[in-house]
C-alpha cells in the first residue's frame, strides 16, 4: 500500500475543512427558526384589550373606565370593592352575558378576555399576572402590587 504524502493529503484536508465550515454555517442559520414564538401573556391580552374596550365598552363606561350616565365606572376603589374579590373567569362570564346591552355577536371570547385584562391592568394588576382563561379562579385584585 502506498503512503499518502503531504501534497496528496492537502486536498483531502481542505475538503474536510470546507465541509465542516458549511455544516457549522447551516447549523447557525437553522437555530433561529427552531426558536418558538413567544406565547400569549397577560400583557399582550391587556394591550389588545385597549382597542377592544374602546370599540365595545368606552361609549358607556368612559374612555378611561371612569363611568358615565350610561354605565358604571370600571376602575378605582368602588369598582375593586364590588368586583375585586371576583375571579377573572367570573367577571368574564358576567361581562359576556350582559355586555353590551342588546347583543354581542361581534365580540369574540378572546376580545372579552382582552377587555377583562385591560380592566384589571387599569386597576393596577401587574403585567406578570398569568394569562387569563377559564381557569383564572383567583380574586382579580390579588395581583395588585
What does this structure look like?
- By secondary structure, the protein is an all-alpha fold.
- It has a single domain (42-143), classed as Cytochrome Bc1 Complex, Chain D, domain 2 (Orthogonal Bundle).
- The protein has helices spanning 6-34, 42-56, 58-61, 76-83, 88-98, 109-122.
- Helix 2 crosses helix 6.
- The termini are far apart.
Terminal Cα span:
80 Å
Could you estimate the helical fraction of the residues in percent?
A: 55-70%
By CATH, the architecture is named Orthogonal Bundle
Summarize the main sheet. Answer: none
Query: Could you name the CATH topology?
Result: Cytochrome Bc1 Complex, Chain D, domain 2
Name the helix and strand elements from N-terminus to C-terminus, one letter apiece: HHHHHH
Which band does the percent of strand residues land in?
A: under 5%
Radius of gyration over all CA atoms, rounded: 28 Å
Average residue-wise pLDDT: 84
Shape from CA axes?
globular
**Low-confidence parts, pLDDT < 50 over ≥5 residues?**
24-31
According to CATH, the homologous superfamily is Cytochrome c-like domain
Count of folded domains:
1
Count of strand segments: 0
The first-level CATH class is given as Mainly Alpha
Briefly note the structural class of the backbone.
mainly alpha
> What is the overall number of helices?
6
